[in-house]
Amino acid sequence: MANTPDPLANNPAIRQWAERFYAIKAWTMPDPPDAGDEELENRRKAALAELAKISIPAALSSGARRSLAGGRKALKKEILGAGGVDAFDQIDSDIQELSTQIAAQLATAAARDKAQAALAAAEAKFAAVRDTLDQGAFTYLEGLIKAAHKAMAAAVSASDFEAVEAQAKDITAKAEAANTYGLYFDNWTRSTLSLIAAMSGGAKNTAEADRGARMKTAAGHSKAGDFGAAQTALEGWKANLGDEGDMAKALSFDALLADYMANTHDRCDFILSSMVPDAKDYRNHLKNAKKKAYKEQKFTEAEALLQELINYSSPDRSALARYMRTFDASLKADKGFRDALAAADAKQKFKGTNNPAGAMADLKVWEKANRVLMRQSRSKQIVKALEKKYEALKKVLAEPELSDLTATWDAHKVLADAGNFDKDAGAPQYHVKLNALFQLMKVVDERREMAQILGQYPAASGYDFQKPVSDALAAQKYPEAVAAVPGALALLRAMPAYLDTRQAAQDLLAVLPGDADELTGPLDAAVKAAEATARGGDPAKAASDLQAVLDGADYMDLVLAMADYRAKLAKVQKEHNRTKKYLKLAPAEDALDASLKTATDRADNDKEYGDAFLLLDTHQKLLQQAKPMATARFQVQGILKALERAGTEAGKLTPFKERVAAAEEEAKKPDFPKAKTAFDGIRTDLQALCKEAAEGCEAKDGVDSNAGHSLDRHGPDVSDEDLIQRLKTGKPPNAKTEDERSYTGASSKFHSPQDWLAGRELAAQAASGKGINIDDTKMDVSGDPLDWPEENFDCTVEHGRPIDKAFVGHKKHVRLDDNGEPIPDKTYESFEEIEGLTRAYVNFIWEPAKLPAETTPFPADPTDHPEEKAQDNADYFEKYKARHNTAPSEIPGRWVMMQQYPVADGWDNETKTYTNANPGNMIP
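^ that's the sequence the OP posted. Answer follows.
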């Protein structure tokens, strides 16, 4: 599910406890006051006892736990620092309020978890069905999901979360209804296209126009969630038919065909390509069914053919076909085999006894009675039919079994190729071992998982759970190894949890006070007992036993504080490092490092993980100020260098450079908000110059080139309607003719010329780091062409700030192919609007200059050569050599930006993040 804010931590009733802790300022507890008033000390003692009864449950979110833990620490300080009895009336009331708040939040947390689960289920359902939906249904469900997320983000109380849960469950139900309608929509779309194809003249035009109008009406109903009305609107199209029954027949055939393709086609293909004798009678059934339906409009006959094919392709006949693959064709020379095969054919024949299971049983009886022949057949099958399996197995086996497999296979193949099928001295002597080796394929995935666990948790190898497998492999006892894998894997799967729990316990032992024998003793004993249990062969129980100790009231708070701190540190550290990649400004980086070190020192040196968590929270807020400033600065730096490269007058840039210098000083202080405001203002005021420079770059790139179209297709002046039209029709925004097409699954545009120009320049600087100067006008070439300079550079620029919006296609249109069969088109019926994209792909290529019109002595003197364009350096080289009878030492030309477009792949529009891995060519 998409990330949502922490509603419990953001609850004002909880946040007040964190704020109360922040207000303390001092991070250490005061020493208890000297003994004095007996009543005061009794009240102090009673208050501390009540406070000690309060634990922070693990069920709460980390933010809530830390906030409430901070409040409890604040109360403890108030108790220890109270100088009079009167103060305890309020303190006691606050302790009760904290206890009540925790109980209330437990109920809220339970409701939150249910709401999150229901919302995740609704999102998963929407993702599963969205490619079947028309635009109306897609928009309707997408709106419901967005509304549920908004409600989830605003939810605070248990009743709020219960409402979100109900809302999410309703979405899931509506998604199912939308899917049912979507399947009908697909069925109707394909069927009506087929029916229209058979029409002509005015009737066809009328039918097409009515079809489009009904689809538009249906989309209006589905957009409102009225799928019944949408289906009724589509069903009304049958009025265009002379025989309304044709509509029902077409829909019925299409539905059966969809069912066949989804559930039977793969099995049927396997049977039809097998040795089953009557398979040849059904190999054209699918083709003929489609022909009758789409060419001849004989849907009833087409459906009958398809149904017969489905009935023929039974699981029993598939099993027979698979079994018959074990017979080598050479067996047909034996009359006994031919007789057995004929009998089996008669028994399995679909238009006859139709008993493929019985036929297979009869063949197995013959096989047992003819072992000599079967050994020969088996050897030939291993060499012929199993060779692909052998090659596949070779790729996944490791030593020593790999060498054993290769040696056994080679020895078998030599004898089989020589026709030596003696049971003891010929090829069959290797059958048992090859069969055992091939069994290893069954546990490839399991063994890979075992290796991954051992790689990620090297300490797990010391428990020897993998030893039965490795010992059996070393002894070439492959069946024993295969049998041992499940047990070994089960034990290894339990090891990460045990090792993590053991590490948590050991970390806890390291931070407990040296004089806390009542805590360290039992925990140390529990760690040793768990270790004995794990080594005894039950790591799952060891982890459970040790976790039970850690969950005890004496340890839980500190364990949770450590876990919360580490989880938050990982997240904050990642954002910290990412921010510094944009920043690259020493004083500001030093300030960020110092802020982070304050938090980590509190954990590493003082072992105060709760305090450290709250300090990380403070640092995270600083990063939230620093990163927008850093990314604005990052773009401004790129823009100014791009303007200089484009030849913008120095006088026009001087005021901006002066403003940048002033903004830099604010960033160094650091005053990130003020610096951000300054850089944002500079960036905004550069728009006119950026627009002029961007258009100039495009115009220059486009001269005699296919480059120079990025702004036309993805620039800020492209309208949403143009982007949607490209998805729906393939026609790009800069189409020079009505017929021009450029199909895409994501149609996007930049927000501003600043984003576009910055990306171009930042990519150019990255190219410079690879030895490519995009301002070069010649390229030195000599020696081996493989050693010539690169002619291409591409990268993905991560701007770190929103640069774009896009429309992403989901459900494809359907069209008829040349045979009249409905197939998916390259264009889209439905789309999703996304925004906030932060990455852009940029590609520069080297274009050789044209060879001039000239007269040379080659190939004959004189020869007039026309001006001509080379495709690349290699082509230029050949053309030049043909003219001059010598190789050029340099090639004139230029670098052009062939592509720049925002990257939509992997974008999560809810979290505004990319979910796929970062490309290896990403900058910064």
